[in-house]
Write a structure and sequence with these properties.
The protein has about 400 residues and is α/β, with parallel strands linked by helices. The protein is built from 13 helices and 14 strands. Strands 3-4-2-1-5-6-7-8 form an eight-stranded mixed sheet, with helices on both faces.
């Protein structure tokens, strides 16, 4: 029997022009022989039509937010505000009853009462973040209320899920701590890489000079990054170029705007998916400068294996989930109150190893073992086991 997959996502497909784990998983499911269709169910602004077919064949189904202000997003987690809006999906799936299996994949803990609108063949929660924590690490009364609402929503989903997959061992431990009675159905599957995409190294047409040593971060520019540290590094190593590639997710915060005033900071903004590899190859060292906050403890960054797949050495900060991959000439992890000079010394060391062919081969070798296709096949294998 063919299968309809409904994926609960954070927002519309091209919300910030970044490709996350959920996007890759949706594309993986879309190309499976037994798949009838994939529905990308997401919150979004009020618009018509409610359902659209994306270029990749995936159907995007929008559940409109209470309003367009950021503070109104809490309604995604409270049934009173979204339940009636699910009727269209409920009616659509009712028509498919008996002709297809229908599976629900949560990648974001919104709409926790979806289990009530249909007799799902399976419900799975793929947890990639501490969704209830603040990206900035700052406390406020509003943040506290939001935390309680999201945790309650997540609890409901965990209870109904056939199994839960986490992107880091820290996330798994947190879920087990909160829901010990469900620990036997919680697994860890770290993020991977589309390895082949980072093997193309053609002549670059990017508007970047090749003279300066270049260290860089590629991904969403968000409050979880340590902008102050980057500013200190930029001032101490004016001969370096620090390249930032990705959309501004800080809402033009003061810290980020001040960082951009440094002459050797270069920010590209959002770039097309196909150019990410090209920017990777312009770097001497890939950096992941994350703050020492609770939210970052659970992160397994998508860029770690992408940098390595491109043959680049990497320096990470405050990412305990990546500790197992620390290796000389490959990946260095700095933790705690990291000072600018400490980070610079790590960069100097990695710059000296960047072109070493043996280490370059080792970086690629490690990344190749983490291909998305393999990871998703393993998750699908659990899927089949729990369906029996």
């Amino acid at each position: 029997m063919r299968t309809i997959h409904v994926i609960v996502a954070t927002g519309i497909w091209n919300l910030d022009h970044l490709t996350y784990r959920r996007h890759r998983f949706a594309e993986f499911l879309q190309k499976q022989q037994e798949t009838e269709e994939v529905i990308w169910l997401c919150p979004g602004q009020k618009q018509t039509p409610e359902v659209t077919k994306l270029e990749n064949g995936i159907y995007q189904w929008i559940i409109s937010d209470l309003g367009n202000h950021k503070v109104q997003r809490f309604a995604r987690f409270i049934p009173l505000f979204y339940q009636k809006k699910l009727r269209g999906l409920s009616n659509y799936l009712a028509e498919k009853k008996g002709s297809c299996l229908v599976k629900l994949w949560y990648t974001y803990p919104a709409f926790p009462t979806l289990h009530k609108i249909y007799d799902w063949d399976q419900i799975v929660y793929d947890c990639s973040d501490l969704w209830a924590e603040q990206l900035s690490g700052k406390f406020s009364l509003l943040a506290y209320i939001k935390q309680k609402v999201i945790l309650k929503s997540e609890q409901r989903i965990v209870e109904k899920a056939s199994y839960i997959t986490c992107t880091s061992s820290f996330l798994k431990e947190e879920l087990v701590k909160r829901t010990p009675e469900y620990q036997k159905k919680i697994y860890t599957f770290e993020n991977g890489v589309e390895y082949r995409l980072f093997q193309k190294q053609e002549e670059s047409a990017l508007p970047l000079e090749k003279e300066a040593i270049t260290i860089g971060y590629i991904g969403g520019i968000k409050p979880k990054l340590d902008f102050y540290l980057l500013q200190q590094i930029a001032r101490r190593r004016k001969e370096w170029r620090i390249l930032l590639v990705g959309p501004d997710g800080t809402n033009s915060s003061q810290e980020f705007m001040q960082l951009l005033e440094e002459p050797n900071i270069q920010w590209t903004g959002s770039v097309p998916r196909e150019q990410v590899s090209e920017y990777m190859h312009t770097l001497d060292v890939g950096i992941m400068p994350y703050k020492d906050i609770q939210y970052n403890k659970a992160i397994f960054p998508l860029k770690l294996f992408e940098f390595l797949a491109a043959g680049k050495p990497v320096i990470g900060m405050n990412l305990p989930s990546t500790k197992a991959y620390a290796e000389e000439g490959v990946y260095e992890l700095l933790q705690g109150g990291v000072e600018a000079e400490q980070f610079i010394q790590a960069c100097d060391k990695m710059v000296n190893t960047a072109g070493n062919q043996e280490w370059k081969k080792r970086r690629k070798q490690l990344a190749k073992t983490k291909d998305w296709e393999t990871i998703f096949q393993e998750i699908t294998h659990i899927n089949k086991e729990t369906s029996m």
